[in-house]
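Form 12-C: Joint structure prediction
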Amino acid sequence: SFIIEERSFMPCEDLLYGRMSFKGFNPEIEKLMIQMNSRCKEEEIQVDDKMEADVSDEEMARRYETLVGTIGKKFLRKRDQRVLQDEDEDGNSNTRPSKKAKKKFLKPQD
Amino acid sequence: VTKCGLLRHRQAGGGAAAGGAYWVDSQQKRYVPVGGDHVIGIVTATAGGAFKVDVGGSEQASLSYLAFEGATKRNRPNVQVGDLIYGQFLVANKDMEPEMVCIDSSGRSSGMGIIGQDGFLFKVSLGLIRKLLAPKCEIIQELSQLYPFELVLGMNGRIWVKAKTVQQTLIIVNILEACEHMSAEQRRQALAKLSGN
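Section 2 - Result
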């Protein structure tokens, strides 16, 4: 048989939380009372409140869309930057015979 | 250590306890620090990175500066000598000085920390505290009907009460002290007299 010695009284008698407030004397403690005492019950009521965001999700998505492009451009090499500029300027593909945008490494032909 | 009292038993099957529990329900006034208990302490000294807190045990407990929510090395908690602290024991065995913290295992304060200004602190026996903290305590329910007030119960036998006026505070203090020796009927009579006034 397993006997565990426990020195505290808390698990024995299922005591409540020590801080209490009544009739709205301290609203924060009243909220805490509900939270703490509901933890004793079988289900833990997950406090399901979305934090109120300063920036809405939509705006966040829009901002991110443009942000990724801007920051990405910072890290392009010079050649790529020029290509990007060309692409922006004329929407249609260039009339000149297309130069290779990115010069791949050409193996030396013997 | 021997204790005398009633042997109590709780069946297995409760949501919290895994197996049945037996304990001796005894009456005593002197508190022995036990890990995990929430207690009210009085700050007596600030000594080298930690506060010395008197919890009514044989030794003073130590409370580190960093054991508060949102405390960093630069951001010290605003605690003076003589303040009241509600915290829980981290470590408390008979070989070492007990250690207290005002923060729970997930890092939040959840109601612990400095107890505010005003209010009244007094000492009762440990049995009364356990009775008051029982899940359905009539005393607390009846008192809560009277006036708005705030109550902090420490497992070390200390209770702190704060109500709107000094008189109301003292009334609550007297009821709590006396209800250990009153029967339920006497208590109801006393409360009825008060709410009548």
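Section 3 - Comments
Helices of chain B lie at 126-132, 138-146, 166-178, 184-196. Residues 14-18 of chain B have pLDDT under 50 and may be disordered.
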